[in-house]
Amino acid sequence: MSATKMTQENSSTITELVLVGFSNHPQAEIPLFFLFSLIYLVNLFGNTVIFILVVIDSCLQTPMYFFLCHLAFLNIFYTTAVVPKMLFNLLASKKVISYEFCLAQTYISLLMGAAECIILAIMALDRYVAICYPLRYLIIMNWSVCMQLAGGAWAISFFASVVPLYFTTVPICGPYIIDHIFCEVPVFLNMICDDTSLQETVMVIGASGTLLLPFLLIVLSYLHILVAVMRMHTAEGRKKAFSTCSSHLTVVTIYYGTGMFMYMRPKSLYSAEGDKLISLFYAVINPALNPLIYSLRNKEVQGAVRRTLERWKAFHRQTILP
């Protein structure tokens, strides 16, 4: 029987994989459990609040917050696919993950990562239109256009990332040990015993479409924004324009910096411990930071929170009064 056939048969019978996580540092597992639990709760709370506020507050029903809703949903879904299993393994003596769930994590992380890149690019385009064409903003960024952009972002992400991976996936071979915190494409490539040049090429091409092209769109948008801001006559106008972009630029810098390093490099640069830290930033920490650095310090969001609390208090008073 050939080695390739044996590998395929062995791969088809895999039920569990060892997920190493932070077991190389057992003394840190309990503190990390509480730290990541807190970060996950902050993520769930912050992004859920943003999502609810945009839905119930008419003042936030604008294109910018419409796309922010998609980002909030994405952050919750992404981390929910990753963090609970990671937390469970921090406390478990047997640190394993089922082969099916590992594949699911790989597809979800790839889809959500690609979608976040494109949505961040659309949000940069939205800021460009708002600052460079303020009088025509609501005409250009009408709801029909917003719906098409959002639908296109999810469709492109799926067909540019998940579909190519599905058709180029080959069986992995033992030892079935994943020295990472969750399953994603670079980790899978490291477990393939055969030549992975095709998979690496497909990954780089896909990353170029879902990482580099959106990144170039962000850069071009902000170059035009910078020119428009420099032409403003008042310091107050320039300050207001910069304040609407600073949070988005912070999110872009953190996410794209870590994402490009993780997905646009050859297999030879793989480093288990370094990659764990990088993955923590874009899959665990960054989704929790997004509502804090992008929205919760925004005056419009703060106003929506106050209005919602006032409505809730008024409703509560009406229900308890005879």
UniProtKB/TrEMBL annotation:
Q: Where in the cell is it found?
A: Cell membrane
Any one of the GO CC terms: plasma membrane
What top-level branch of life does the organism fall under? Eukaryota
InterPro entries the record matches = GPCR_Rhodpsn (IPR000276), GPCR_Rhodpsn_7TM (IPR017452), Olfact_rcpt (IPR000725)
Query: What's a single GO MF annotation on this record?
Result: G protein-coupled receptor activity
**Which keywords does this Swiss-Prot/TrEMBL entry list?**
Cell membrane, G-protein coupled receptor, Membrane, Olfaction, Receptor, Sensory transduction, Transducer, Transmembrane, Transmembrane helix
Q: Note the topology in the membrane.
A: Multi-pass membrane protein
Q: Does the keyword Transmembrane helix apply?
A: yes
Q: Which family does it belong to?
A: Belongs to the G-protein coupled receptor 1 family.
Q: What name does this protein carry? A: Olfactory receptor
What organism does the UniProt record list as the source?
Answer: Orycteropus afer afer
Q: Which gene encodes it?
A: LOC103211126
